[in-house]
Amino acid sequence: MDTQLWKQVTNCLTKKKVIVVVIVFVLFVGLFFATKSVVKMLLPSDSRKTQITSEFVSSQINGISELATLHHHYRKVANYQDAKKLLVYMPDWRINKSIKEFSLIYQGDVKMGYDLTNVKIEVDSVTRTIFIHLPEPKILSHSIDFESIQVLWERQGWFNDIKFEDFKQFFISEQKKYEKENYDELKRLASERAQKIIRLNLGSNIKLVESPESDEKSFIDRWIRPEDGYRIKMP
């Protein structure tokens, strides 16, 4: 009888302990989320102030085309050679004598940029990601600094003098050649420039987060204030 009574008392105490533990756990969880809500209300949140849509993002970057333009300066050594055949059966040594040529150093400037009014933007509110698809960049201007020209050497040909038109056609050809040979590199630099400016501009109006920074957040900080910013992807 004493043993049975003791078992009943033990079971009763065990049930009470379980009930107490459950009550404490519920109170703790309730207090935790209540504290979390209060903290979130007290802390400023940019994402609550502004609804992030593709239209909003587009309005933020449409006016920064000039800022996002790549200004590329270069210096180049170039050679020019032209042979004028005076007679159909001119000997080779005379052809050599008719060659006009020169070598010079010059500097140029290329501007390459994007028409940001044609940017395609998608906002994924679930993953909080902004996808920005840039159009193909275009060369906006290409100029030669004629004051920078240094003629290294030149040679006139027989009845084939170097003329102003020779220099004009030479530089037109040089511009096209430089753009063709360096297009991929200019495109890469223009893309890096545009992405940097777009991120800086959006960062002043939208809270942005980066993976390295979010990984460094403490466990408590992640619970009290989860990431409410956006990531930018520019595929």
Plain-language structure description:
By secondary structure, this protein is α+β, with helices and mostly antiparallel strands. The chain folds into two domains: 2-42; 47-233, no CATH class. Helices cover 47% and strands 26% of the residues. Strands 1-2-5 form a three-stranded antiparallel sheet.
Number of strands: 6
Mean pLDDT: 76
End-to-end gap: 79 Å
Radius of gyration: 36 Å
Give the neighbour order of strands across the main sheet: 1-2-5
Coarse morphology: rod-shaped
Helix count from the secondary structure assignment:
7
Summarize the main sheet. 3 strands, antiparallel
Query: What is the strand content?
Result: 25-35%
Helix and strand composition category: alpha+beta
Helix content: 40-55%
Number of discrete domains = 2
**What is the ordering of alpha helices and beta strands?**
HHHEHEEEEHHHE
List unreliable stretches of 5+ residues: 85-91
Give a brief description.
The protein is an alpha+beta fold.
Considering the chains and any ligands shown, give keywords for the structure.
6 strands, three-stranded antiparallel sheet, three-stranded mixed sheet, 47% helix, 235 residues, 2 domains, rod-shaped, alpha+beta, 26% strand
